[in-house]
Amino acid sequence: MIGLVLAGGQSKRFGTDKALYTFADQPVNNAALAVNRLRLICETVLVSASDRNVDALTSQFADAPNVTVMTDQPPFAQHGPLSALYAATTVYPDDHDYLLLAVDYPRLSEEVLTTLAGVDNCYAVTPDTDHYTIAHLWLSKQAVAAYLNMGSFRLSRFIRDYCQCQQVHFPSSNGFINCNTIKEEIHHDTQITNERP
After folding, report:
1. What pTM does this model have?
2. How confident is the model at residue 196 (pLDDT cuts 50, 70, 90)?
3. Please, what CATH class does the domain formed by 2-176 belong to?
4. Where are the alpha helices (DSSP H) in the chain?
5. Measuring CA to CA, which residue among 121, 160, 112 is closest to residue 139?
């Protein structure tokens, strides 16, 4: 199983690079938290970076065994998480097992990822939100390219309709909160604020 950290977002609402940000109660930044969690399950971890943070992330993980930082690859660059999937399958073109985790979830528990890793083709769902960037997929470069060539760039459609992934339900929890601004305080009693796509 290959871990894939989605760390190339624009972080417009957040105000600074979310992947490189460290909340006050964290020992490392959000990208490192995601990598560390995936390394508990996956032998290899890929980090999908943007042009803005690729140098910083490459330096950060330079000495981390089996961690590779990559950027979007032509002809499918700048299409969000789907570009990350294409880039990953460019590194490993044949069918492979991927466990996806976005840096947006610094409080996510390892138990969630372990549960998803035990179910083929699935994604996490809480009562209020579908979490398409927390998923387990079998992918190949051919399959991802075929979908992108149709001109559809919505990750939700790719996972739900094209890959026909099943939902794995979890209760609402602090771990599923996507913090969109630095000023947001995450407490255990905070409600999930994401909306369904």
Report:
1. 0.87
2. very low
3. alpha beta
4. 30-39, 54-60, 81-91, 110-117, 141-148, 155-157
5. 121
